[in-house]
Amino acid sequence: QVQLVESGGGLVQAGGSLRLSCAASGRTLSNFIMGWFRQAPGKEREFVAAISRGGYSTSYVDSVKGRFTISRDNAKNTVWLQMNSLKHEDTAVYYCAADGTVRRVGVMSRSTRDYDYWGQGTQVTVSS
């Protein structure tokens, strides 16, 4: 089992920044593709970003490209999501997730169904 705990959410004004953290325990994250998803009220959970096992490849949903950055440090068993130039529409509960499926190098799923472990979520609210 892998336990994931997100932190760093909060209330920020539009144009501001937040950095979300995801700390893992139970197993090392080095064998997992890591992703961030978000869910706004009344909306389905959507993919935000993912990072490959070694941290050399990343993937982002179009709406956050150029504003968000996903990173990881396997030695610290931690994944981050740096969120800059935040917009009101970024308001959501953000979830960290781990995908343990063996995949080709550079291949990262954007589907919630492919992620095996999830954190409890952290609320991000962007005021307009």
Count, helices: 0
Number of strands: 11
Low-confidence stretches: none
SS-derived structural category: mainly beta
Tell me the Rg in angstroms: 14 Å
What does this structure look like?
The chain has no helices and eleven strands. The mean pLDDT is 96. Strands 2, 4, 5, 6, 9, 10 and 11 form a seven-stranded mixed sheet that branches. Strands 1-3-8-7 form a four-stranded antiparallel sheet, with no helix packed on it. The protein is an all-beta fold and 128 residues long. It starts with a strand and ends with a strand.
Question: Can you give me a brief rundown of this structure?
Answer:
With 128 residues, the chain is mostly beta strands.
Feature tags:
mainly beta; 48% strand; four-stranded antiparallel beta sheet; single chain; 128 residues
Secondary structure: elements and pairs:
Layout (H helix, E strand, L loop, with lengths): L2 E5 L2 E4 L4 E8 L7 E7 L6 E6 L6 E3 L7 E6 L4 E6 L8 E8 L17 E2 L3 E6 L1
